[in-house]
Structure formats: C-alpha cells, structure tokens
Amino acid sequence: MIGMEVLILLGSFVVLLLMRVPIALCLVVSSFLTGLYMDINLAALIQRMVGGLNSFSLLAIPFFILAGEIMNEGGISRRLINLANVLIGKVRGGLAMVNVLASTFFGGISGSAVADVSSIGSVLIPMMKKNKYDSDYAVNVTIFSAAQGVMIPPSHNMIIYSTAAGGVSVGALFMGGIIPGLLLGLMLMAVTYMIAVKRNYPKGEPVRRGEIPKIIREGLLGLLTAVIIIGGIISGIFTATESAAIGALYAFIITFFVYRDVSITRMGIILKRSFKTLSMVMFLISASSAFGWLLALLKVPAMVTDALITISPNDFITLLLIILILLVLGMFMDMAPLILIATPILLPVALEVGMDPVQFGVVLILSLAIGLITPPVGTCLFVGCAIGKIPIEKTVKGMLPFYLAMIFVLLLVTYVPQFSLFLPSITM
C-alpha cells in the first residue's frame, strides 16, 4: 500500500516537472513538501543537501569539466578530426567514419555527449553536407557517435553514479565503460559504412604525406589527457580526483603553451563556462541527496524491488524491465538528474537479481545515453539538428539502423557481465 507521503513526494515531483520547473527545484520542493507533511525538521533536509556534496570523489567533476572546456577552446576537436582522417578517412563514406572515430577520441577527453555534438558536429556536419552527404545522415552519425562520450572515460556521469550508488569505485566504473564504449563505436562504424555504401557516398580525400607526422603528433598530445587520467587511476599513483586535477593542468599546458591557438586571456571565459556547468551539476547532486534520503526513509526502493520481482521471478525479464524503465525515463529527462533519481530506486533491484554495481552503472549510463538522442527531450538530437539546420522529424526517419546498433550493445552489456567487468577485474 502506497502511503500519502510517497504520493506527495513523487506526485509533486511529476507535477512540477510537467510545469517545466527546473529539475533541481522539483527535487527540492517535493522533498520539502514531503518533509512538512511528515513533520520532519527541515534543517535535517538541508543537512542532507549539504552532506550530499561532502564527498572527496566529487572534486573530480570540476576538474573534468575544466579540462574538457580548455581542450575544446584550444582546438582539440579539429586536431582529433584530422587524426581520425589520417587513420580511417580514405574508405567509402570516409567523413562519416572520421566522425565516429573523432567522437570516440573526444569522448575520452570531454566525457560529455553534448560537448561532443557541439564541437565535432560544428565542424563535420557542414563539411559532410558540402561533400554531398544527406543532412539527416550527417546529423544521425554525429549524435549517435557522441553517445560514446558518456561511456569512454573520463566521464563525470560515472562519478555522479558512484556518488548516488554509495561509493562504487570510480576507477572500476571508468574501466567498465571502455569495452562497451569501443564496441558501440565499432557497431556504429559498421552501420555508418553500410549506409554509405548503399547511398554511394564519396571516399575521403587523402592527406598529404608531409602533414601526417604533425597531425599525429598534435592529435596524440591531446589524447594524452585521457591517458594520464586513466593510467594514473589504474596504476594506483593517483586517485580519480588527483588524476582529474593533473589532467586539467596538462590540458592547460598543452592548449596555451603547445598548441597556442588561443590567448591565455580566454581563460576567464573558460572558467565562467566551467563554473556555470559545475553549479548546475552540484545543485542537482545536493537536491537529489535530500530526495534520495526520503525515498530510502519511505522504503520506495524496497517497494519497487518487490513490485518488479512480483511481475516476474525470472531475472532475464526483470533486467529487461529495468532497461525499458530507463529508456522511457530517458525520453523525458536529462541524464544527470536521472542518474541521481533512478540509482537509489533501481540499484537494489539489480543487486537482487545478481547484477554487479559496476555493471549496473554501465547499463544505466548506456540506457540514458540513448535517451539523449530520443525525442521529445533528446538534448543531443536538438543540438545536432540545430547545427545541421534540419527539422527533427526528418532526422528521426533515418535513426532506426543506429538505434538497433545501440540496443544490441545495451543488451550485450546487460546479459553478458564480462563486457563491463573484465577490465575492472584485471586492472583494479
């Protein structure tokens, strides 16, 4: 039997969400309304909000955001596109293949799908259209390949999940996302190539031999940001937070003293953008801490676990239901708040059917990545269509092959644990 407290907590949240109130405020207001009804001292809720930010691992988030902003401002996306072009640009549909590979590289630096679409897409979508690629194809290749950005480390979304899950190893999550992220990239490349052959898109233009060493050197210097972060964590030399700080420092040196495409006076603008993003993320984490505490207090996770197990005692079906719930939720809410809201509710269900917390984290983030490109609230979809100057309806028509590739990888990661657990088991 669902009590009035649960109805107030979840009902007010949904009503406020439908009224287009910002999600963080929805979480705060619904938590305080429930607290007033339950006669809880509101100071306790405020303490929970403050306490939700009292985590050493959360310090990695501002450094990851800063490193991504610095590298993006310094022209890293253009250099990674050039590197990808050297490696794979000569095949049929070469620009599309370069798009996918460049997103794989850039995702390992920014950790953000939206940043990937904005930076890679602003260069490659117009270039693809100019080379007679269809607009819907150019946009779809860009937005689907950008989904790798949240899978391939470093990903601040994995740090958010680690916090929401009660301290799952960030390093293990980073390693757990590598194979699924690369597998997703390979599947998208296969789909991209098959469509390119079917539509007879042109091959990429060869790069002049004398330019290749410089392109490789500059591209690898940028990729070293991700290598430093991941290598430091795996080796045990740094914690995730320390690796993020060193990665940000390296990005600063490479951008302003090696690439030197932008003046150091731009640092103020970079910091302003970073603080704006960080303030939104931290407010969400703080608000969700009070909301999650009330969920636990009212035993909502236990109710959901019992309900899903009651629907079917079969673990296979239960996992499928979890995926469907995440895919539906991802259509209407952005990734970060959904991680914070869904984790305390669905993680106990996943643990009940024997799923490892690291594996569930990878499944959660991949499921919500699909939501980033799904109407009606697909952030990457909107950004990609805006860059490509194409209506969303036209883009949606060509999505099916790319969706099937992502769903295939999602099912593999869900039902074959070793895809996400192999690397953590041998490195962490």
Tell me what the structure shows.
- This protein has one domain.
- It is 77% helix and 0% strand.
- It has 21 helices and no strands.
- Helix 15 (315-330) runs parallel beside helix 17.
Question: Which labels suit this protein?
Answer:
428 residues; mainly alpha; 21 helices
Draw up the topology in text.
Blueprint (H helix, E strand, L loop, with lengths): L3 H15 L4 H15 L4 H10 L8 H14 L2 H13 L5 H17 L2 H18 L4 H12 L9 H9 L5 H30 L12 H24 L4 H20 L7 H31 L2 H12 L3 H16 L4 H18 L4 H15 L7 H10 L3 H5 L3 H16 L2 H10 L1
Rounded radius of gyration (Å)? 22 Å
Number of strands: 0
Beta fraction: under 5%
For the largest beta-sheet, the strand count, sense and barrel status come to: none
Unreliable segments (pLDDT under 50, ≥5 consecutive)?
none
- Structure class: mainly alpha
Question: Ends: how far apart?
Answer: 43 Å
* DSSP helix fraction: over 70%
Topology pattern, helix = H, strand = E: HHHHHHHHHHHHHHHHHHHHH
* Domains (count): 1
Helix count from the secondary structure assignment: 21
- Mean pLDDT, as a whole number? 85
The global form is globular
